[in-house]
Amino acid sequence: VLALTALSFLPAALILMTSFTRILIVFSLLRQALGLTTMPPNIVLIGLSLFLTLFIMNPVFDSMYKNAYQPYSAGKMGFPQAIEVGAKPLKEFMLKQTRKDDLNLFVKMYGKEIEAREDVPFTVLIPAFAISEIKTGFLIGFIIFLPFLVIDFAVASILTSLGMVMVSPVMFSLPLKLIVFSLADGWALLSTSLVQSYIN
Question: Across residues 188-197, what is the average pLDDT?
Fold first, then answer.
């Protein structure tokens, strides 16, 4: 029963306690900005988001493995202590990426006094972190949308000035956006920016 419960909890933990949410939101908004609906497929975006998440979270997972799992498996540490020690790197990562306003909002709703940021319980930190990641993902997506909107407006204006009102601007703007994004090596630049947004 415990194993089945853990397996059902792991996907939610991966989504809400790591960088997965922000990355997937940004990639999904990028696809919308390009004017594509099914390319790249959802499985590709989810897979890329998953492996970028593993890349970003690797130092955290490595610290949890060395400081908590190895001593516990060697019998040098009890299970409750291993949970406490293993949770510290993850909590530090989440606190670093959580906006103060979002954290303060949930701390106020928590109703109990919390003296230091390190004492914030996961029941407060997880929703604050998730809201903060969603907000950040949408802000990055908005910035990504801007240059593609400029291309759409430019194409629509040119077609209107030429009297080609009945022609859909998407027919011309979509290949133009694809070639500009490809020549700029957009996927690599965006992936690098997402990784650096967590490292810096």
Answer: 86
